[in-house]
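ok, trying the design again with the full structure, not the truncated one.
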């Protein structure tokens, strides 16, 4: 049975411009900003090398019954995002990740 938590259409991670609007952790999955993960986990420091300014870190430790969804939105003109994202999935676990990038208004573009 699918979990009702994700049925509402919420994102597990949502960033608009440079602000994180939502982090929705679920059982068996840890979601942090990349900079928080850099501070907390050796593996993040090994992969990122330097502390990221933006982005997300998702560590899937257990099977989930629904897709994980991340969304990066540009909502302001001339926005430049320097995202460093990391998705870790433990051996033997299958997961679907919906990774979305969008512009909140017409005629916006990232740099």
């Amino acid at each position: 049975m699918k979990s009702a938590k994700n049925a509402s259409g919420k994102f597990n991670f949502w960033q608009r411009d440079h602000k994180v609007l939502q982090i929705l952790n679920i059982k068996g999955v840890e979601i942090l900003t990349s900079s928080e993960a850099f501070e907390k986990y050796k593996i993040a420091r090994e992969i990122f090398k330097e502390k990221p300014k933006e982005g997300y870190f998702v560590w899937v430790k257990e099977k989930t019954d629904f897709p994980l969804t991340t969304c990066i939105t540009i909502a302001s003109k001339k926005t430049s995002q320097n995202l460093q994202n990391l998705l870790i999935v433990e051996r033997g676990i299958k997961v679907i990740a919906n990774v979305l990038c969008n512009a909140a208004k017409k005629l916006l573009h990232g740099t």
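Keeping the full-length input from now on. Strands lie at 13-16, 19-23, 29-33, 56-60, 68-74, 86-89, 97-103.
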